[in-house]
Amino acid sequence: MIWLTTKGLNSNIDKNARIAMYVIDFVFLIFSLGSLYYFLKTQIVKLTNKHLIISYQFLPFSKKILIEDIKGFIQTQKSIIYSNRLFDKGLEIYTIFEIFINLKDGKKIKTYSLSDYDYKEIQKLTEKIKRGEGKFQVEKISNIELVIKNIPMILFLIMMFILIGGLSNALIFN
Q1: Is-contact 69 77, C-beta < 8 A?
Q2: In a shared domain, residues 100 and 77
Q3: Cα–Cα distance between 109 and 102 in angstroms, integer?
Q4: 80 lies in the same domain as 119
Q5: Which residues have CB under 8 Å from 171's CB, separation 6+?
Q6: What per-residue confidence (pLDDT) applies to 8?
Q7: How many domains are there within the chain?
Q8: Contact 51, 65 (CB under 8 A)
Q9: Whether 70 and 123 share a structural domain
Q10: Separation between Cα atoms, residue 125 and residue 117, nearest integer Å
Q11: Is the pLDDT of residue 27 over 80?
């Protein structure tokens, strides 16, 4: 996007057009970086029989917490004010949940990756594992079953590669 607008700026010497293109590029850049930040910040919470693992989906960082070190969980709701019009009072909606994992040494670990339902399930499972009641059943599937389960995602990725390749070809050679 930025490359296309700078190419268009070279052919246009109007000062107002230059300012408009810089504003458009800046807004595009801000939204792109914000989207990339939240995309990379996506967390995955895994519970094993000994650890609670908080990892990032697209980054190689993870935190392993021993189940015995977990003191408890706290869930707080963050309010979002929604308004239809500019000067309306707005409605207060609670859709974002901050979850704090309290550790025995007094530390708190914050995560946004759990919904209200997931929070309750993780809390129940953690307590069951601490009491020794939790049982894990590992589902073993073959590679063919894995491919069959993920056919929609595979088709989506193939379609995106074709689309990106076609658009890249059109931008580079035209």
Answers
A1: no
A2: yes
A3: 7
A4: yes
A5: 3, 4
A6: 61
A7: 3
A8: yes
A9: yes
A10: 12
A11: yes
Burial track 118-127 (b if 16+ CB lie within 10 A, e otherwise): ebeebbebbe
Q: Quick check: helix, strand or coil at residue 169? A: helix
Average pLDDT score, the chain:
78
Say how far apart CA 151 and CA 148 lie, in whole Å: 5
CB-based contact 112:45 (threshold 8 Å): no
E strands in the chain: 43-47, 51-56, 62-66, 70-82, 91-103, 108-111
Q: Is residue 7 part of a domain?
A: yes
Question: With bands split at pLDDT 50, 70 and 90, how would you rate the model's confidence at 11?
Answer: low
Q: What is this structure's pTM? A: 0.55
Q: Residue 44 and residue 56: Cα distance in Å, rounded?
A: 6
Q: Indicate if 72 and 111 belong to the same structural domain.
A: yes
pLDDT at 17: 73
